[in-house]
Design brief:
15 helices, alpha+beta, 20% strand, binds histidyl-adenosine monophosphate, 420 residues, elongated
């Protein structure tokens, strides 16, 4: 075909998959709102510096994956590769922090990373992210873990485990980096080209490398924990155990962005790539705006989530209509306009043919619209003031008085209570 295709790594989302995105958004938003999270919307592009300052210049996201461009005035801008830095900027710029109170924010946003595209990895993808800002301590950490597990359960996912790690404070992190550096001393030539660079700039990032990761028995993060770290971990574990929270520690989990401090987590749902990831980042606000505002949060990759829900048949969405009015007589349109109005406040998907059709078109119409109820208003029916309603699921027909058509339809859908 003679027109430009969509750019590599982007997606056209349509039909039942687009409906799945909407359904998921509705379910997760409900949980977030129930937990007093407020939605935020931030720009698709920001000053490039916002991300380079906060995500870490040695991370893959900054080093190789950012979409950077100059606008017509030569400003250096970047398409957002993630949302946490943008939320921090939004909070700081709009003075949203009220001393002594946590701030709970969430966003739905498309993100951009110049990665090698494959299933579950795109150059433009969607995230749901939530950030508990101006909060510190174990209760805040537990609250966010519980929120994520409530979200997974509300989506119908019951079998999941959180992989946790504890990166500790700046000293602990530094200690571990040095342990890694020492460990790789003399082994530099065995590292891939990227990790040779990482070894000097930020050795933690070697743990992200799928090649080098499996080749070395490098030291465990546990070795760098001090007493405070251990106290934290013991206390958190006690709460998690008390509430049977599904977790395990993975001491290799360091996450791909540099801003993390303290608790980090991922959920992989048994899939190759993590669906959800996040953690605490107590220094990010300091780095961006010179303010001491501790925070933690997470983001769910919507593509990976939808793939998982579809594969496991947890979310099966069909693209159908609830009621299709089949018009084979032009005077019927007047009735339909009134009925549509009467049904407008009920969450029913309703449609009708725009041109009068002969009844032989019916099989094709049914195949195309997949209606649950088909209402036929033909001449024969109009003469006796009745309509024919076909229950396409049960394949049964009913002759119904025109004047009770709405009652009949409402009654039908009450019996077949269905979540929209
Ligand atoms: P992240 O781990 O980089 O964290 O991304 C979160 C999720 O986004 C991943 O677990 C994955 O599901 C999805 N994701 C990432 N890259 C891609 C891609 N190229 N294609 C499809 N899905 C992808 C963050 O972005 C942090 N901002 C999370 C966070 C919030 N931490 C604290 N607060």
């Amino acid at each position: 075909m003679n027109f430009p295709n969509k750019p590599r790594g982007t997606q056209d989302i349509f039909s039942s998959r687009a409906l799945a995105y909407q359904r998921i958004q509705k379910i997760i938003t409900k949980i977030l709102r129930n937990n007093n999270y407020q939605p935020v919307i931030f720009p698709t592009f920001e000053a490039e510096e916002l991300f380079t300052k906060s995500l870490g210049s040695a991370t893959d996201v900054i080093h190789k994956e950012m979409y950077i461009f100059q606008d017509r005035k030569g400003r250096e801008l970047a398409l957002r590769p993630e949302g946490t830095a943008s939320v921090a900027r939004l909070v700081l710029q709009n003075n949203l922090i009220k001393e002594g109170y946590p701030l709970k924010l969430f966003y739905w946003a498309n993100m951009f990373r110049y990665e090698r595209p494959q299933k579950g990895r795109y150059r433009e993808f969607w995230q749901l992210g939530a950030e508990l800002v101006n909060s510190e301590g174990i209760i805040a950490d537990y609250q966010v873990l519980k929120l994520m597990s409530d979200i997974l359960i509300s989506l119908g996912i019951s079998d999941f485990t959180f992989n946790l790690n504890y990166l500790g404070n700046a000293q602990t992190k530094e200690k571990y980096k040095n342990q890694l550096k020492d460990f790789f001393k003399g082994k530099e030539t065995e590292l891939c080209d990227d990790c040779k660079r990482r070894h000097s700039t930020n050795p933690l990032r070697i743990l992200d490398c799928l090649n080098c990761q499996k080749n070395f028995p490098y030291p465990s993060y546990e070795n760098s924990w001090d007493k405070d770290d251990l106290d934290y971990i013991n206390e958190l574990n006690q709460i998690l155990n008390k509430f049977n929270f599904p977790y395990q520690y993975n001491h290799r989990l360091v996450r791909g962005l540099d801003y993390y401090t303290g608790l980090v987590f991922e959920v992989d749902l048994g899939t190759e790539k993590a669906v959800l990831g996040g953690g605490r980042y107590d220094n990010l606000y300091q780095e961006i705006g010179d303010k001491n505002i501790p925070a933690l949060g997470f983001a769910i990759g919507i593509e990976r989530l939808v793939d998982f829900l579809e594969e496991k048949k947890i979310l099966e969405i069909k693209n159908y209509v609830d009621v299709f009015f089949f018009v084979c007589n032009s005077s019927a349109y007047l009735d339909i306009f009134l009925w549509k109005e009467a049904l407008a406040n009920y969450q029913l998907i309703i449609d009708y043919n725009l041109e009068v059709r002969k009844s032989k078109a019916l099989p094709k119409i049914i195949e195309h619209y997949q209606p649950q109820l088909l209402v036929i208003i033909g001449e024969k029916e109009t003469e006796v003031n009745k309509i024919l309603i076909r229950d396409c699921l049960k394949k049964t027909d009913f002759f119904v008085e025109k004047k009770i058509a709405i009652e009949w339809i409402l009654d039908y859908f009450k019996i077949n209570d269905r979540v929209n």
